[in-house]
Recover the amino acids of this structure.
């Protein structure tokens, strides 16, 4: 199966999650292309999609949202999985306001959406981002759970096998 995986990352965690998912899907025998959403001009020829975005202020990046808007009709006709990365200060990486991300995902009818905690290193952030993170109570540290990422990728592989 030919799969397009997009990831919109600001500081690298989302791209790292995307790379692990792609590796797992390839290990299961799928042909996976990885791209930044803003670099994709056409999605013809893909059988399934995995879309990922960093989350800031409970929103996906503008590039990830734009991708879903540009290709909404095509995405609705194929299986789509989505993941978000960020909000490391929240318990188990949960989204504080899923309605901000929700409309984007509802418009493309994803098979599943999961949120993974990322990393928070203030040295990697702009002054504005550090201020927002402090106000939001983000905890400094690396909360990325690659075993959870691999398990989720395994669930995609299982769903694809079941639908074949």
């Amino acid at each position: 199966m030919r799969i397009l995986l997009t990831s919109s990352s600001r500081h690298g965690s989302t791209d790292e999650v995307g790379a692990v998912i792609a590796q797992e899907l390839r290990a299961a025998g799928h042909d996976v292309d990885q791209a930044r959403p803003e670099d994709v001009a056409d999605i013809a020829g893909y059988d399934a999609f995995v879309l990922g975005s960093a989350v800031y202020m409970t929103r996906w990046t503008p590039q990830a949202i734009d991708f879903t808007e540009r290709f909404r009709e095509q995405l609705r006709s194929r299986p789509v999985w989505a993941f978000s990365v960020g909000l490391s200060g929240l318990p188990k990486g949960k989204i504080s306001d899923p309605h901000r991300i929700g409309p984007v995902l509802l418009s493309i009818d994803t098979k599943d959406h999961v949120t993974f905690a990322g990393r928070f290193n203030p040295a990697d952030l702009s002054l504005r981002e550090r201020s927002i993170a402090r106000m939001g109570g983000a905890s400094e540290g690396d909360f990325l759970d690659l075993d959870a990422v691999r398990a989720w990728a395994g669930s995609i592989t299982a769903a694809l096998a079941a639908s074949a």
